[in-house]
What we know:
Mean pLDDT: 82
Radius of gyration: 24 Å
Distance between the termini: 36 Å
Number of domains: 2
Amino acid sequence: MKAEDSSELSIFDIDWASLSEEDRLAIISEHIHYVNLSRKAINTKGFHSANFRSLFLMLLFGLTMSLWEVDNKTIILTMIGVQFLRTVVSQFFEASLFSALDIAKKDLANFIFHRAQKHDKM
């Protein structure tokens, strides 16, 4: 186990009942900030990978069609068509991902609500 792993695991050892409301809100706020920043970093990596794959695909189409001696107009129309199809497919994927995210958000809210109710009954 690395040194940074032990500092990350220590959050599970916190006695949340002994913390003030302000401290709990500060910890949760920092955690949300960290999660948002991680999502942005992952999105940036995804965009870079997608752009690289798109560029590589277009270069491959252009080279292949040039070797087959296809005219430039057909090459350009093929590239536009492929990009359009990739965009449509990625939009469907994005919509399904956001739908799954909304469901996960509702599940998290329900989980927190049930845990809070369970804690209040004690």
